[in-house]
Amino acid sequence: MSSLFSSVAVFVFVAVTIAKGVRIVPQGEEWIVERARQVPRHLAPGLNIIIPYFDQVRYKLTTKDIILDVQEQEVITKDNAVILTNAIAFIKITDPIKAVYGVTDFSEAIRNMIMTTLRSIIGDMTLDEALSNRDKIKARLREGVADEAIGLGPDGEVGRDQDINPSESMQKAMEAQASAERERKRW
Question: Which of 73, 104, 103, 99 is nearest to 156 (CA)?
Fold first, then answer.
């Protein structure tokens, strides 16, 4: 009876060990594994073997495109006009270890990088340049964020959809100016 109990206990231990050692990572994900809270490595999609009881899956990251909505913000142009701008970024994690260990929240870091870079780019332009050069702004934004994000692990296209509008007070001032111009031409 004792040998039967021992055999069942060994069988259960072996089954649990094998179950803990075999990991199937779904397509579109990569997992970060730590051993004794050190030596991180990542598991690619598919069948993976880890050392049970020593290796632990700490993070599960998606490798699909992540859509980041950058909130609307007021930006002051070179000629002191206030405009409202926002952007949408499509980010893909290319280095999961850097994305996890390089910064606390890489999505928030990228969002803040986009916001500050966008303010810097538009701050170097006049109102007319900012309103008429969206493609130039997108290109400079993509370059600026790509350079800064190298150490964080994500890669992607930034500023795909972008909205640049004069602030409400600026719109009223522009309408008043246009109206005055029309009135002047009329006389």
Answer: 99
